[in-house]
């Protein structure tokens, strides 16, 4: 069992779930709705996204805001605790560029039909 007093182990407990860092990356630029996150995280199932969002909310990393509109609107945003994780993601971006030769964008690629029209 990992040392529960180790800061690295405690942080890893929060951020090492599959998709978790990508959810935080996408929320680093501001608020997003569920459907926007789902589109950005190509390949994630709605159930997995829902579970990740719920877990991050329980950890205090993000805040869920529900607007009483018809239809209901829900937005997710990083809390101060969540924004403190953004430098980790930026370090990963730098490492991937410098050491792994990854030069692609970290955002959703344009759809082929839209790219052809541009």
Keywords:
mainly alpha; 7 helices; Arc Repressor Mutant, subunit A; 118 residues
Per-chain topology:
Blueprint: H1 7-15, H2 20-27, E1 32-33, H3 34-40, H4 46-58, E2 62-67, E3 73-78, H5 80-83, H6 86-100, H7 112-117
Task: Give an account of the 3D structure.
The chain is 53% helix and 12% strand. A 3-stranded antiparallel beta sheet has the order 1-3-2. The chain has a single domain, classed as Winged helix-like DNA-binding domain superfamily/Winged helix DNA-binding domain (Arc Repressor Mutant, subunit A, Orthogonal Bundle). The protein has 118 residues and is mainly alpha-helical. The protein has helices at residues 7-15, 20-27, 34-40, 46-58, 80-83, 86-100, 112-117; strands at 32-33, 62-67, 73-78.
Can you give me a brief rundown of this structure?
The protein has helices at 7-15, 20-27, 34-40, 46-58, 80-83, 86-100, 112-117, and strands at 32-33, 62-67, 73-78. The protein is mainly alpha-helical. It has one domain (7-117): Arc Repressor Mutant, subunit A, CATH 1.10.10.10.
Using only C-alpha atoms, the radius of gyration works out to 16 Å
Major sheet: arrangement of strands: 1-3-2
Instruction: Report the total helices.
Output: 7
Number of domains: 1
Quick one: CATH superfamily? Answer: Winged helix-like DNA-binding domain superfamily/Winged helix DNA-binding domain
**Derived structural class:** mainly alpha
Count of strand segments = 3
Helix content: 40-55%
What's the helix-strand series? HHEHHEEHHH
> Major β-sheet, in short?
3 strands, antiparallel
Which stretches of 5+ consecutive residues score pLDDT under 50? 109-118
- The CATH class is Mainly Alpha
Measure the end-to-end span: 53 Å
Task: Tell me the overall shape.
Answer: globular
CATH topology name: Arc Repressor Mutant, subunit A
Average pLDDT for all residues: 88
CATH architecture: Orthogonal Bundle
Percent range for β-strand residues: 5-15%
């Amino acid at each position: 069992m990992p040392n529960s007093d180790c800061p690295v182990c405690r942080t890893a407990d929060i951020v090492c779930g599959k998709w978790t860092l990508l959810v935080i990356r996408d929320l680093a630029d501001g608020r997003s709705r569920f459907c926007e996150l789902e589109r950005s995280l190509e390949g994630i199932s709605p159930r997995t996204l829902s579970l990740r969002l719920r877990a991050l909310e329980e950890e205090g990393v993000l805040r869920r805001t529900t607007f009483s509109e018809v239809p209901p609107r829900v937005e997710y945003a990083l809390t101060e605790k969540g924004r403190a994780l953004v430098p980790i993601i930026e370090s990963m971006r730098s490492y991937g560029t410098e050491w792994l030769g990854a030069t692609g964008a970290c955002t959703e690629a344009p759809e082929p039909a839209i790219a052809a029209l541009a």
